Amino acid sequence: MTLLQSRGLLVEDVARTENYLRHIGYYRFSAYLYPLLTTPKENHVFKPGATFNQALDMYRFDRHLRLLMFNEIEQRAFASVLVGKGTMSNCPAASPDIPTVRLTWIRETDTEKQEDSSGRQGR
Questions:
Q1: Residue 65 in 3-state DSSP?
Q2: Nearest-CA neighbor of 30 among 21, 39, 42?
Q3: In Å, how far are 8, 12, 52 from 18, measured between CA atoms?
């Protein structure tokens, strides 16, 4: 904590800041301190007026955005499983607003096998 303060970071409550750094981890949190550094960044000197709370606000925003994104990804993944099982009509996440994603990872040989089994000529 003393090192950050000696480099110009303003800290209102040292005990609270140390608690955050202990729980988040300094190396994880240091990415949010980076925009508050002067250039050249290698000098590790903070801009005048840079505060721990500014970095904490960036961390909280990023955390909230990450949680929102993972929630949406999880819903889409669940919906795609239901599409595969033919039960999409029962899915509360299904809506006309959800964009359809074409699965490009299906191998061409799998597509050929499906065409052969349906009576159509394979390639």
A1: helix
A2: 21
A3: 16, 11, 11
Q: Band the pLDDT of 70: cuts 50, 70, 90.
A: confident
Q: Are 29 and 55 in contact (CB under 8 A)?
A: yes
Rounded distance, CA 39 to CA 50, Å?
Answer: 14
Do 56 and 20 contact (CB within 8 A), yes or no?
A: yes
**Which run of H or E residues covers position 68?**
helix 52-85
83, 75 contact by CB (below 8 A): no
pLDDT tens, 8-39? Answer: 999 999 999 999 999 999 999 999 999 999 99
- Locate 66 and state its tokens: 């990450």
